[in-house]
Amino acid sequence: MQFDNLSAFFHMGGYAFYVWLSFGVSVLALVILAVDAVRQQKVLFDAVEKEQARKIRIKAAQAGAKQNRFDSQNIPQNEEVTHEP
To answer: What is the spatial distance between Cα 73 and Cα 67, in angstroms, rounded to a whole number?
Structure first.
């Protein structure tokens, strides 16, 4: 379809309201989709980061518990101390 001038293009042969409304709704939907995707990515990355930190803390706690168990097994229990005069 050819238009004689820019005004005729924007008028769209009397259907401008419907044409531009459909373009506007489409662009709005794409913008909302893009913003939501960026927001979801941030939420996902934050969750992964927290999960990795949690796993590191669990491993450190397990390693510390093993070390404490090893240390407590090597400490003699009920050992009497004798003092020689």
So the answer is: 10
pLDDT above 90: residue 85: no
CA distances for 66 relative to 54, 61, 75, angstroms: 18, 9, 15
pTM here is: 0.56
DSSP state of 29: H
Kindly list the distances between the CA atom of residue 83 and the CA atoms of 24, 80, in Å, as whole numbers in the listed order: 94, 10
Residue appearing with tokens 């531009």: 20
Which residues lie below 8 Å from residue 12, measured CB to CB, with a gap of 6+? 19, 20
Say whether pLDDT at 49 is over 70.
Answer: yes
Name the region of 13 (left: φ>0; alpha: ψ -120 to 50; beta: rest): left
Q: What is the mean pLDDT of residues 23-49?
A: 97
> How far apart, in whole angstroms, are the C-alpha atoms of residue 41 and residue 34?
11
